[in-house]
């Protein structure tokens, strides 16, 4: 799977690295697998797109569908932050679109930030440097 994640329960964060070719179906599967777990409700999240070589979306509308799907999974969760690391323009633009759509959905409880570097994203999440094992 091109989305490798680990959960740091001490820091209350899910750290995810996307690699290779990323499809919309894989992103939806990741969302279902990780965020349906009750033990991560309200956790912050970092998705690093630095190692993505290609994003294969069936349509741009899938970004809006993912934002809606994700916001629906937030229902009842405490407010948290979601940082997307996207150094290249295409992924950065997709991240901004996703963030705008998600924040417009009243069910969502995550603030979304899109950053060019991992260091910026970690700072925004309030993490001092790289979490252990990161």
Write the layout of secondary structure elements.
Layout: E1 3-8, E2 13-23, H1 24-35, E3 44-56, H2 61-74, E4 80-85, H3 89-104, E5 110-115, H4 118-124
Parallel strand pairs: 2-3, 3-4, 4-5
Antiparallel strand pairs: 1-2
Keywords:
Transcription Regulator spoIIAA, 5-stranded mixed β-sheet, alpha/beta, 134 residues
Account of the protein in words:
The chain has 134 residues and is of the alpha/beta class. It has a single domain (3-124), classed as Transcription Regulator spoIIAA, CATH 3.30.750.24. The protein is built from four helices and five strands. It has helices spanning 24-35, 61-74, 89-104, 118-124, and strands at 3-8, 13-23, 44-56, 80-85, 110-115. Helix 1 (24-35) runs parallel beside helix 2 (61-74) and helix 2 (61-74) packs across helix 3. The two termini are 18 Å apart. 27% of the residues are buried. The mean pLDDT is 93.
Provide the β-strand percentage band.
25-35%
Topology-level CATH name: Transcription Regulator spoIIAA
Pattern of helices and strands = EEHEHEHEH
Count of folded domains: 1
CATH-assigned homologous superfamily: STAS domain
Counted beta strands: 5
Low-pLDDT regions: none
CATH class: Alpha Beta
The appropriate CATH architecture is 2-Layer Sandwich
Label the overall shape.
Answer: globular
| Terminal CA distance | 18 Å
Number of helices: 4
What is the helical fraction, as a range of percent? 25-40%
Largest sheet strand order:
1-2-3-4-5
Query: Roughly what is the average pLDDT, rounded to an integer?
Result: 93
Gyration radius over CA:
13 Å
Question: Which class best fits the helix and strand makeup?
Answer: alpha/beta
Main beta-sheet strand count, sense and barrel state: 5 strands, mixed
